[in-house]
Amino acid sequence: MKKTILYISFIVLNGICTNVFAQKDSLEDGLTVNIKYVPTLSESIKIPVNPNPEQPTSVKPTFTYKIPDLNTPTTPTIYTIKPISLGNALLPKLSNNYFRFGFGNYTTPLAEGYVNSVRNKTWNNGIFFKHLSSEGDKAFQNFSNNTIAAHSKRFFDRSILSTSVLYHRNVVYNYGFSDTIKPKEDTLKNIYNLFDLNISLENLKNDTVSLAYKFDLNYYFQSNNYDLVEHNFKLAGTLAKTISNMPFTLYTGINSISNISNSNTLQRTAFIFNPRINLEDEMYYIKAGFNYTYFTDSLDNTNPNHFYPVGEAAYHVIPKALTVLAGINGSYNINTFRSINAENPFVRNYSFKNTNNKFEMYAGLKGHIAKGLNYSLQGSIANVNYMMFYVSDISNLQKIVYDSGTVTLTTFTADISYQVGEKWRLGLVSKLYSYSMGQLQYAYSRPSSEVKLNSTFNIGDKFLLRADVFYVGERKGGTYDRTNGNKDDVYEIKLDPFVDMNIGIDYRYNKNVSVFFNFNNMAAASYKRFTNLDVYGFNALGGLTLTF
To answer: Which of 484, 474, 414 is nearest to 442 (CA)?
Structure first.
């Protein structure tokens, strides 16, 4: 500011001086100029301002609390603590009783029932009955099956005692005669009566090193309407124990068989001793032992001892996916009235010789391909003495023939199964057989191949569908005839291969009531089970099932 005032003053003086010099003629003598003049400016007046903002003030409120002095009376309530329960999900209510009734073409009634006791920690009891009969589609092709059985189990702290009793009556007729033969029905009827009693005692293992045992006592009596009777008494036991991490198992028993007919009585006795040892690791297992049978009968006792080495070794190439295995085996198989009748109930002329599987060698592989998909492939070769076959005689009655030499039986088996939860299951088993006969010319009534396909499909727990397909390859049948037969005195007959397909449908109305329909031999194939014995054509059976 001072510089501004000084600058203005300088301009004013300069103007005055200029003006003075311009009037020199008149003012030259009368003007005195003092060049030492120094202009001054007065001090500016400043208003002192000192900011002093106001400080806000706050006042804290003052609170006072007062808890009223009141007494509230309380009355204690005591509840009984209930024990912890696992709930009903782990122990669902069981349907103890089951009944099925049905009817089909060829006048085929069906009645079946199971009656069982409720869940109990001490006892389990039940009875079973079944009736199935049919008149057939040809003369004398009718049959009748009747069974009634009962079982009981007693549970102890460390063991279980089981008993069962069964009575079975089976009636079949021989048929398949030519039109020129008019047999009487009474002469063709085969009636089989079976009474069976079983008692067993087994313990409950508490650890892996204690001794496990199971003892079985069995007696059965079987007869037919042609005065053939069989008494079979068997006492057997199974012992298992792990010693030094090595599991040992022993099966042993004694079997006494009496076959009584009008002509003679055959008494047979067998003592069985089969020990086993099992070595197992993550990548392999080895099973080894032997089968020993001491057998005597009242007709021939020339070779009572029968010894067979037994062993199997497997290596898990890919755990759970691929396992290769190989083994050897052998066994002495006693043919009985009951076992023959179960395979071919049309046999009238019985002869009892035992089948001796002298040596069998097998190899194969098995594993798991994908979830639910398993497979097994195996091939075997066996030398069998007194293998049993079936032909008919000139009266069209089934007859047993044995190959007294050694039959070399080669078998190839393929087994594939696939399962998707509880909804779908599929199983396929295929077998190929090759017979190198010893004394007989053909393997009479034995097939060259078999294929079995079965499947079940569950649709929403409402519909249960079942399908079974069977294929049996070509066989050689025959009629025993000393005048027109081959070297076996058998006039051979070719039995064609066949396919049989069966379908079953169950509709579950609710959990207690369902209806079912079974359709058998859907292709109505006319084939023979044995020589001259045709099976039924298409047949259907439907009915009702009750559970409660």
So the answer is: 474
Identity of residue 484: N
The H-assigned helical ranges of 182-284 are: 185-188
Q: What is the Cα–Cα distance from 473 to 212, expressed in whole angstroms?
A: 45
Position 523: which residue type?
A
Residue ranges of the domains in the chain?
1-40, 344-548
Quote the percentage of the chain above a pLDDT of 70. Answer: 81
Which fold would CATH assign to domain 344-548?
Maltoporin; Chain A (2.40.170)
If DSSP codes are grouped into helix, strand and coil, which group holds residue 6? helix
Contacts of 363 (CB under 8 A, 6+ apart): 324, 325, 326, 327, 378, 379, 380
Q: Is 531 exposed, middle or buried (0-12, 13-18, 19+ CB in 10 A)?
A: buried
Residue 295 CB coordination number (10 Å): 20
Structure-token pair, residue 268: 């047979």
DSSP 383-419: EEEEEEEEEE-TTS-EEEEEEEEEEEEEEEEEEEEEE
Cα distances (Å, whole numbers) of residue 363 to 316, 327, 396, 497, 511 = 14, 6, 41, 28, 46
The SS3 of residue 85 is coil
How far lies 27's CA from each of 12, 19, 322, in Å? 19, 11, 141
Q: What is the pLDDT of residues 110-135, one digit of tens each?
A: 999 999 998 888 999 999 999 999 98
Look up the pTM and report it: 0.78
Nearest to 266 by CA among 297, 289, 288, 232: 297
228: its two tokens: 């053939």
Q: Could you count the other beta carbons within 10 Å of the beta carbon of residue 245?
A: 9
